[in-house]
Amino acid sequence: MKIATFNINGVKARLPRLLEWLEETRPAVACLQEIKSQDEGFPISEFEKLGYKGLWHGQKSFNGVAILADGEMPVEVQRGLEGEPEDDHSRYLEADVFGLRVACIYLPNGNPVPGPKFDYKLRWMKRLRARMAQIRSEEVPAIVTGDFNVIPHDRDVWSPPAMAADALMQPESRNAYFRLLGDGWTDAIATHNPKGGVWTYWDYQAGAWPRDHGFRIDHALLSPELADRLVACGVDKDHRGREKASDHAPVWVSLRA
């Protein structure tokens, strides 16, 4: 079974590329971030033509997450994170599908540092950790995947000095991410690529894509019940190089049934 995540950077703007990717790779579950669409405008009919059913948590022009499943309707468990009632950002969606608990996240970027956006990022990560602890306590096979907006290690970026001042690489961001791993979650891509050098994002600016100046911020964290079923994982890098592509590439994990 293949579970994938893809920050699509606008579901309507990238729809041809997204449909192309779904047809070519056919993940059982596809988690999408930055759909940038209100709920009523999400193009679910286009995905249904391919056999996918889905849930989505939209927001006008910004953020937004969705979970698509091949031939099965995901059963919603939770949308949004508890702990900050005034937070109206659409960044978290959780569902049960194919016997798995799937959480799709779009973690705040946090720039500029210091500032209120970085403070919000750290609070959001604390709330995420609390929810992930609840999931762990249920002892279900679970995956939390999406755009974490955290570069975990220097080996996960083409040039550490180039990103040193960015919120994605601050010690506080990294420490919050490492606490998730310390709670028992497995970073699938890191496990299979211990030397690093795997990128999932290339900026549109400064020739980042042709120069391969990228970094890894899209992650798939597996619960202990699911980590033992990990067979393979990877990045569909070639999709980043296509016309009118997202600035992210899809990330996937393959699991034993």
UniProtKB/TrEMBL annotation:
Keywords: Hydrolase, Magnesium, Manganese, Metal-binding. It comes from the Bacteria. Its EC number is 3.1.11.2. It is an enzyme of class 3 (hydrolase). GO terms for molecular function: double-stranded DNA 3'-5' DNA exonuclease activity; metal ion binding. Mg(2+) binds at residues 7, 34, 147, 149, 247-248. The record marks 218 as: Important for catalytic activity. Its cofactor is Mg(2+); Mn(2+). The record marks 149 as: Transition state stabilizer. The record marks 248 as: Interaction with DNA substrate. GO terms for biological process: DNA repair. Probably binds two magnesium or manganese ions per subunit. Residues 4-248 form the Endonuclease/exonuclease/phosphatase domain. The active site is at residues 106, 147, 248. Belongs to the DNA repair enzymes AP/ExoA family. This is Exodeoxyribonuclease III.
